[in-house]
Amino acid sequence: GEDVEQSLFLSVREGDSSVINCTYTDSSSTYLYWYKQEPGAGLQLLTYIFSNMDMKQDQRLTVLLNKKDKHLSLRIADTQTGDSAIYFCAESGSTGGFKTIFGAGTRLFVKA
Amino acid sequence: EAGVAQSPRYKIIEKRQSVAFWCNPISGHATLYWYQQILGQGPKLLIQFQNNGVVDDSQLPKDRFSAERLKGVDSTLKIQPAKLEDSAVYLCASSSFPQGANYGYTFGSGTRLTVV
To answer: From the CA of B56, how many Å to the nearest CA of chain A?
Structure first.
């Protein structure tokens, strides 16, 4: 079945850039997402990218997609302490009926 | 617009008891999802409704879990009897996309269930 993998932890200093990486297995993935989850809260959609795009930028967030390697990354510029959260990579495609499949999440720690 | 509402926020029950969770999606959203998020894992889809019909319940443990969305608006998820491994956060989400599209879901804050 479809699988999404990401590293579990990332620690950065405030003001630095953060890069969170993700790999997926579904060749039919059409949409790829990044969600953010703060403690005690639900998931918040940060951004998504179509599989026919290489890059998408939204303010401090840059998403890069390497479809050949099935690799997705999220770069957060000028990381702030408020960015500390769990970031989930996810995908949906025709194989799964366009249901969203999530990775296990990367916990980002931002040190002041 | 109002977000996805869920209640209760927290629930502690003993194993073999029953529990129910409620979700009210964003107004006009035809599709409603229940996800289970076990600590340290990503959310896993339990059931998907389109209006009041079930689209996918392939990962719902039907011997103990049930869900309904009778009027195509709010939904309840029930566990009876609960097991220790049901301890998790139960997330409700909703969306309104044309078929074959998925621009991302709106999630509620979840219900944290602890089974002791």
So the answer is: 9
Residues with Cβ < 8 Å from A36, sequence gap 6 or more?
A: A43, A44, A46, A85, A86, A87, A88
Cα–chain-centroid distance for residue B26?
14
Q: Are A103 and B56 an interchain contact pair (Cβ–Cβ within 8 Å)?
A: no
What would the 3-class secondary structure string for A4-39 be? EEECCEEEEECCCCEEEEEEECCCCEEEEEEEEECC
What residues of chain B, 8 to 37, have a C-beta less than 8 Å from chain A? none
| Predicted pLDDT of residue A95 | 83
**Residue B1 in this model has a pLDDT that exceeds 80:** no
DSSP string spanning A88-112?
EEEEEEGGGTT--EE---EEEEEE-
C-alpha angle A32-A35-A39 in degrees, rounded to nearest 5: 160
Tokens read off for A4: 């999404």
Long-range contacts of A49-52 (CB under 8 A, 24+ apart): A51/A93
Determine the Cα–Cα distance for residues B44 and A6; give it in Å rounded to an integer. Answer: 16
- Assess whether pLDDT exceeds 90 at residue B91: yes
CB within 8 Å: B42 and A97? no
Please give the pLDDT value at position A1: 65
Residues of A in contact with B42 (CB under 8 A): 4, 88, 90, 102-105
CB-based contact A63:A72 (threshold 8 Å) = yes
Looking at residue B102, its pLDDT comes to 86
Query: Between A30, A44, A104, which is nearest B42 by CB?
Result: A104
